[in-house]
């Protein structure tokens, strides 16, 4: 019997080291890591810039708490908001905490309680973020949930229009539902959201925990749409493997988070900020983002060329999904692992492809060769 709770179910290979896209298990077997620790290891494993940042900062100072001024927070915040319409950042340690901050900020700012979210969304596991999540399997047994979340069908403009009234504080959604099946927002739906927010003064919260920090080929996924969110939330790729979360917001929201209204002990500590700074100094370079777009285009083209047409490929940047129709993907994922390719699902019927943003064409070719032997 394990000394651990069983909440993760049966776990897979025991990975003991990694370099770039390649990881190695305790038996010495190597794998191509096309999970990136679920979109986290954005610069690949053991990237020299991150190793250097951790080493240098860990010898100087790890933690002081938010009682004190932490210069790294200002630096990382400046990088995150540069050339955007955002004015301020708040740092925390995870995606779910970033979403809690967003929910609290939206309620306090508007003085309203009602938040609209969508089916198949995933926003995290704390009570607020769980209540926002549109998946019954995440809620089961944990009720009563936080009140006043209305979960609507995704990409259904008519359902949204019907649900909008003066009680709505915010609409919260992912640009691509990562956990829910790699489902993107249609341009028609984006237009309906923009209209609803404009007409009724509703805040727009975009959960970019998975899609943000270069994953979709731009700094943030919303930049590829007409949407101009008041708040976005970030985590996963931001720390490259170190736990860092963030919420960005517009200038009008500043006064709502007045001193003492919200906080965290660990959030934005000097070590976390030095790592985030190293990640952003690479990922936010236009040439780097350009390369992510080129790799993604190549990956999609190769998938479409080599997989049978019964599989649908979708997604954006290096957040891609292979829809396997009615087939459950768990056995495909296990077969790929046997052959040296690590994958993760997105719901029961979709294989999610999340290589590090530093993946090479050769590694993509190798992954395709393995996928071809599995997806006949
Ligand atoms: C992973 C994820 C979260 C939760 O992040 P944690 O760091 O696990 O708390 C929230 N929203 C989205 C879109 C995610 O992909």
UniProtKB/TrEMBL annotation:
GO terms for biological process: L-arginine biosynthetic process. SUPFAM superfamilies: PLP-dependent transferases (SSF53383). The modification N6-(pyridoxal phosphate)lysine is found at residue 236. The keyword Amino-acid biosynthesis applies. Gene3D superfamilies: Aspartate Aminotransferase, domain 1, Type I PLP-dependent aspartate aminotransferase-like (Major domain). Its cofactor is pyridoxal 5'-phosphate. May also have succinyldiaminopimelate aminotransferase activity, thus carrying out the corresponding step in lysine biosynthesis. HAMAP family: ArgD_aminotrans_3. This is Acetylornithine aminotransferase. It comes from Lysinibacillus macroides.
């Amino acid at each position: 019997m394990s000394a651990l709770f069983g909440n993760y179910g049966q776990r897979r290979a025991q990975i003991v080291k990694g370099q770039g896209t390649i990881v190695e298990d305790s038996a010495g077997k190597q794998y191509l890591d096309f999970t990136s620790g679920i979109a986290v290891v954005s610069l690949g494993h053991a990237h020299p810039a991150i190793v250097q940042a951790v080493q240098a900062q860990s010898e100087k100072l790890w933690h002081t708490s938010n009682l004190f001024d932490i210069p790294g927070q200002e630096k990382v915040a400046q990088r995150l908001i540069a050339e955007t319409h955002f004015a301020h950042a708040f740092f925390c340690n995870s995606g779910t905490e970033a979403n809690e901050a967003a929910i609290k900020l939206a309620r306090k700012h508007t003085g309203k309680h009602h938040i609209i979210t969508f089916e198949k969304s995933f926003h995290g596991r704390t009570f607020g973020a769980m209540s926002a999540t549109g998946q019954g399997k995440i809620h089961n047994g944990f009720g009563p949930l936080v009140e006043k979340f209305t979960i609507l069908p995704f990409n259904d403009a008519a359902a949204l229009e019907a649900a909008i009234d003066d009680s709505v504080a915010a609409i919260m959604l992912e640009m691509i539902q990562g956990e829910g099946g790699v489902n993107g927002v249609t341009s028609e739906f984006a237009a309906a959201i923009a209209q609803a927010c404009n007409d009724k003064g509703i805040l727009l919260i975009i959960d970019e925990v998975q899609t943000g920090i270069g994953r979709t080929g731009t700094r943030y996924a919303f930049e590829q749409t007409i949407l101009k969110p008041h708040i976005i939330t970030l985590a996963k790729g931001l720390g490259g493997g170190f736990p860092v979360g963030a919420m960005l917001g517009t200038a009008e929201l500043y006064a709502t988070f007045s001193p003492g209204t919200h906080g965290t002990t660990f959030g934005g500590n000097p070590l976390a900020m030095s790592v985030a700074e190293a990640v952003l100094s690479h990922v936010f370079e236009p040439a780097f983002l350009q390369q992510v777009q080129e790799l993604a285009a190549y990956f999609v083209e190769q998938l479409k060329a080599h997989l049978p047409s019964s599989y649908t490929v979708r997604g954006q940047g290096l957040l891609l999904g292979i829809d396997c129709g009615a087939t459950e993907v768990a056995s495909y994922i296990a077969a790929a692992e046997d052959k040296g390719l690590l994958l993760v699902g997105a719901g029961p019927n979709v294989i999610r492809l999340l290589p590090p943003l530093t993946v090479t064409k050769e590694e993509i070719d190798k992954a395709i060769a393995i996928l071809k032997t599995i997806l006949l």
